[in-house]
């Protein structure tokens, strides 16, 4: 069944009951299965009947007559758990939603709740909704959330996202959440439009997810009063406990830039937390190589290693997120009426499955991956290569700002006074800074300054991958930056590195310059290669992909390069406006 939320038709529901009455045979029988009952938090043994994509029976009985068409699987020696849920995915970190889902399935993550940001940036609403429908043909359960802000400072924010568009997204059956509230300070103060959208989300009986890094008890209380239900920004046990105490669902991150899960669990040991029903996991849109060993399965593994009761460790990946989204009647458990997402484990303590059932079909069987997912014709949705109908002129590579951005870590930038000569073609290697420019992908404006801490000697990097979909140039050599730009333009989008007059790395992003259709396994190796090259050239942090993504993100302090100019985020001041080309 490919309808959103798996609303089975009356005819199908009658068939499901007919299986119990013996008038129809199950599609599959999982015989003598030791499975986790997430409601009792116990391991039980039962026979599990599956009809097409739905679990129809769990108990002691077997059908009186089992035809040869029914696949019978002896499950003795294995442990069965529900398919895992990733409740907070950003499925465009070089990969795309389809390739991420296909890869996630291999290690047991069978449900993804996805950010809709890129569809807002790249597609009209009709095309976006058609794509959401198309993605129901894959065996992963795909849901979405509706953003209330761009997470940057766009030149035409009101045109980017307005009342009608937000409300249509919220009313879509595949959209099960509003948020995440990266614009919560505005909503807390005077953003009546954002508050209205929150109330509409609640009226539709959908949840509102916060984004409250470092929030005090008073702030968390205020946002709860305004309608927030969950938050994933805890970076310590104290912060997580505070959210639970106030009635939030709290997701713990294990992500490429915030691998906080293990430390938070260690903190919680000292707090004697023994109720885990409101705790979830998320990998929060990690970059490809972070997923080398899987997605939510790794979170469960860490939780078990840190002493979380095994049954709770699995519940945090299954029934807890399903309950948070009011989908517990469809997902998150092995019980009658649920979608047949089931992971088969060799031991209770090893959450990486040896076999995976997704919507009742084998995605992985005895370690062998099946080809269940259909391909997406991106051209059908106008998600083609990026085309630039303008050229970057050499005299536009001007960098004369008195204030630059200094990297504190992968994503936090602080202002610093610039002392370098701005009119040189190449910056001195002795200086740990580079030129940086953000250019409108339509060629209408540009913003430039200096970036300290990204590279010590790389000639040029150009990326069409960014939070706003615009083009980033970074480097110490204007000639190499121009060379990398031209190659990126030839590729139709991507990340290109140039040095000493040569292209030394390229990663094509053939889906509008922000995503690739390459398999995740290949992309992981490409990203690892790029990271090594950048580190060899002086990148001192761990996640250059996120550095590129968040250069223009205004939900982070302190200074950002945005489509409207260089911005002091805390004061909401434009220090230096963008220059029209």
TrEMBL record:
One of its GO terms (molecular function) is adenine deaminase activity. InterPro entries: Adenine_deam_C, Amidohydro-rel, Metal-dep_hydrolase_composite, Metal_Hydrolase. Keywords: Hydrolase. Residues 79-362 form the Amidohydrolase-related domain. It comes from the Bacteria. It is an enzyme of class 3 (hydrolase). This is adenine deaminase. It comes from Piscibacillus halophilus.
């Amino acid at each position: 069944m490919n309808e959103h939320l798996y609303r089975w038709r009356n005819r199908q529901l009658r068939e499901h009951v007919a299986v119990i009455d013996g008038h129809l045979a199950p599609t599959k029988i999982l015989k003598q299965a030791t499975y986790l009952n997430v409601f009792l938090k116990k391991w039980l043994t039962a026979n599990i009947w599956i009809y097409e994509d739905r679990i129809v029976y769990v108990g002691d009985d077997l059908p009186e007559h089992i035809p040869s068409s029914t696949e019978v699987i002896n499950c003795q020696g294995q442990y069965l758990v529900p398919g895992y849920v990733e409740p907070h995915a950003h499925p465009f970190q070089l990969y795309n939603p389809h390739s991420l889902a296909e890869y996630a399935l291999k290690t047991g993550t069978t449900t993804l709740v996805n950010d809709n940001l890129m569809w807002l940036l790249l597609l009209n609403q009709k095309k976006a909704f058609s794509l959401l429908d198309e993605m129901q043909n894959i065996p992963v359960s795909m849901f979405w959330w509706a953003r209330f802000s761009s997470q940057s400072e766009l030149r035409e924010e009101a045109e980017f996202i307005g009342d009608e568009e937000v409300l249509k997204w919220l009313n879509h059956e595949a959209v099960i959440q509003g948020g995440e509230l990266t614009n919560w300070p505005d909503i807390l103060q005077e953003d009546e439009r954002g508050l209205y959208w929150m109330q509409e989300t609640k009226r539709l009986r959908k949840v509102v997810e916060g984004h409250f890094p470092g929030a005090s008890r008073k702030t968390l209380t205020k946002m709860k009063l305004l309608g927030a239900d969950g938050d994933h920004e805890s970076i310590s046990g104290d912060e997580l406990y505070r959210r639970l105490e106030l009635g939030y669902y709290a997701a713990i991150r294990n992500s490429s830039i915030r691998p906080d899960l293990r430390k938070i669990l260690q903190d919680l040991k000292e707090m004697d937390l023994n109720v885990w029903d409101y705790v979830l996991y998320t990998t929060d849109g990690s970059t490809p190589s972070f997923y080398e060993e899987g997605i939510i399965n790794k979170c469960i593994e860490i939780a078990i290693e840190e002493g979380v009761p095994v049954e709770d460790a699995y519940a945090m990946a299954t029934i807890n997120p399903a309950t948070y989204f009011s989908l517990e009647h469809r997902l998150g458990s092995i019980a009658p009426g649920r979608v047949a997402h089931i992971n088969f484990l060799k031991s209770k303590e090893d959450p990486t499955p040896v076999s995976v059932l997704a919507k009742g079909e084998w995605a992985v069987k005895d370690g062998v991956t099946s080809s269940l997912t259909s391909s997406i014709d991106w051209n059908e949705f106008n998600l083609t290569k990026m085309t630039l109908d303008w050229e970057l002129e050499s005299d536009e590579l001007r960098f004369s700002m008195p204030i630059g951005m200094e990297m504190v870590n992968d994503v936090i930038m602080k202002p610093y006074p610039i002392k370098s000569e701005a009119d040189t073609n190449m910056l001195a290697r002795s200086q740990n800074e580079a030129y940086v420019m953000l250019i409108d992908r339509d060629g209408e404006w540009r913003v430039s300054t200096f970036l300290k801490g990204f590279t010590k000697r790389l000639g040029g990097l150009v990326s069409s991958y960014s939070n706003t979909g615009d083009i980033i140039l970074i480097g110490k050599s204007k000639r190499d930056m121009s060379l990398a730009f031209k190659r990126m333009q030839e590729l139709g989008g991507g990340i290109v590195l140039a040095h000493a007059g040569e292209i030394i790395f390229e990663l094509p992003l053939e889906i509008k310059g922000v995503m690739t259709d390459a398999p995740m396994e290949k992309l992981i190796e490409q990203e690892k290669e790029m990271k090594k090259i950048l580190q060899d050239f002086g990148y001192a942090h761990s996640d250059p992909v996120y550095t590129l993504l968040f250069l223009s993100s205004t939900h982070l302090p302190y200074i950002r390069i945005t489509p409207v100019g260089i911005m002091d985020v805390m004061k909401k001041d434009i220090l230096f406006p963008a220059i029209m080309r």
